[in-house]
Amino acid sequence: MRSIVAPLVLALAACGKPAVQKPLPPMTHQAYAHYLDGKLAAYRSDWPAAADALVLALAAAPDQPMIAVELARVQAKAKREAAAADTLAAARTKWPHHAQVWLMSGDLAGTSKRGEAIKAYRRAIELAPDDERGYLGLAKLESPRESEAVLRQLVERIPDSVDGHYQLAQHHAKRDDLEAAIKELRAVIERDPDHIDARLDLARSLRRTGHIDQAIEQTRSAFDRSGQALDIAEELYWLLCEADDRTAAIDLLTLLDDDRSDVEALAAIARLSKGLGRLAEARAIAARIAAIDADAGVLVNADLDGVADAANAVRKLLAIAPDSAQFRDARRLAGDLLLATGDPTAAAAAIAPAREQRPKDVDLAIVAAYARADAGDAAGARALLAGLGDGLPQALARARLEDHLKAHAAALAILEPLIAKHPDSTTALNLAGYMLADRGERLADAERWLARARDLSPGDPAILDSWGWLRFKQGKRREAVRVLDKAARFSPNEPEILVHLATAWAADGAPRTAGEVLDRASGLHPSPTVQTRIAALRAQLAAQR
Predict the structure, then answer these.
(1) Torsion angles phi and psi, residue 23, rounded to 5
(2) pLDDT tens sequence across 376-404
(3) CATH no. of 459-545
(4) pTM for the whole structure
């Protein structure tokens, strides 16, 4: 806000031309003292005190519109909405040609009084066409089509509006006009090279248009400019996987693994290293985690032990105290390991204390539901998840349970409306697409959903596996081999992916390679279901000799 010690100027508009500007009288020392009291209280977030002081300032300087504007703002912050509305109503009557009065009127009316807010923003634009705030406020309230028109007007009038170009890019992206989005996002970065969100959005649009190298370049730049933020590092990691650049993915993990990394970052690096099959490196990181947080180290090591040494892993996990920050995750992982070894009773017992602490926790509940289902109580499992309420995570949990129970029609009945409501849920898209592909049904729908999942989560081996399995079911054996081989290279310790790859190799006329892949899968302690599939494929290969 401009200093109000000096006279303020009113911008009046008449007949499309600037009106004569009249200087305002200077503020008195008393008015300025009250104004400073109000601003200092606002800096402390003491909104009632700020409002009281600014009331006195406006009374001492009734010809200063910007005091009225600031007063209305802090009155709203102080939950004095009626007083704020009265302040602005009086200001609009007294200063009908002051753009800031109309801007604040639009801001405070917001979505609750949409019509009033739209009128106020339009008036602000009329009075101050070179101030982007009126356009941006109006764009938030209009319909998508009208909002886009407002943003176009903004960037035409103010070409250097970063927010205008960025919001316009988002409109283009929502209707999949990626080339237009890319153009606007480049305009944002040209004006603000450190706009991290714009770089990431540009990278995503570039990837979706087939420019994977440029996408990696932009994501890497966002990663560097963000101070190597962990969430951006993961996005870059998966892009490198999508580009089939395992070396660069490993180099990125090595870069992240330094003395500045905290437990959260180290755990993420260990998880990604495990995914790549770099177990020795992951264990070295787990040792560093244990030196900082012993319980967190136990959790990472138990995840690395997996089913191969489930008894030892579970014993250490169950020793973590209930007041530990890792207790919930420790019990969830113990339950998962016990389910994988075929002991649902022990899994239910392991998860029970954590569920007492967090009865609505979806991740804990799904383990408990699987335990009931595996113990033969399908109705009890469904009832358990039904009690969690509604929402995306809860619905996904119910769909996963139906899939676990082999009730695929019931699972799809949950997933299809869920996808319609949440089209960016990769879990729903991948689960529904894979189920259809695995059963050889509605392959066009499976392809549409899995293609969307790949767009949203490039490089994810689980989604690559689903995509490769779809290609196999479509009879595209050579492409299936290529995709599944890539999934296996970036998740070499996942038995189910290897079984899919072996099946594709066998169908493509390479039984020896298929057998070698099955040997790898057998050595990874697969679940009983996967063991059955391995045995069936071995029998098929033997019959073909």
Answers:
(1) -70, 145
(2) 999 999 999 998 988 999 999 999 999 99
(3) 1.25.40.10
(4) 0.84
